[in-house]
Fold this protein.
Amino acid sequence: MSTEKLYIGYNSVHKLCQKVAATVLEDHGKPDVIIAIGGGGFIPARIIRTFLRQKNEKNIPIQAIGLSLYEDMGAGEDTIGKEVIRTQWLDLGALSEHFDSLIGKNILIVDEVDDTTTTLHYALEELYRDVEEMAAKLGKSNTNTKFSIFVLHNKLKEKKAKLDIAKMNGGTYYAGVGVPDQWIAYPWDSDDIDTHTVKAIEQGNN
């Protein structure tokens, strides 16, 4: 990984969301629900909803799930980042105001960056399993539930996990842009947004 930071400005985030939203709508139509992986997925999820929402239609519900990577440096390099800890999950009570379940729904999972794919893999596997269990309980089929994924940045590197395309069930993986394997500095993590923005402009990322 390069030690040079890649500074990302808010304008860049906004434009990437706008670009990808147009493709999402063309490919699959408006999602029924957006699932943001916290904390990096919160802001892009909210921005992309602006461009996915159709005029005079209700807002797309956004649900948050919290996942943390457990890194055991003493266990060897091959195990780093492989264990994901669930810290927050879906609020099915809130979702019930919009529909009865996720079965047969068009779902968009959002995060800020695909580094090792470990977190995205975990989210897809767990969400798919939740829907499968609900479908079995209700005696319904899960064949129409579609999972798509959107990340602002995909690091162009060897990944530690691989998404199960079959479980996406026709959904699509979207990355706003591919980037080198560098530390990405996002504006919502900055304690000096003015300096951050200057650096993002210098790098052409504002």
User: Anything to note?
Assistant: Helices lie at 10-28, 42-52, 92-95, 118-138, 165-168, 193-202. The chain has one domain: 13-177.
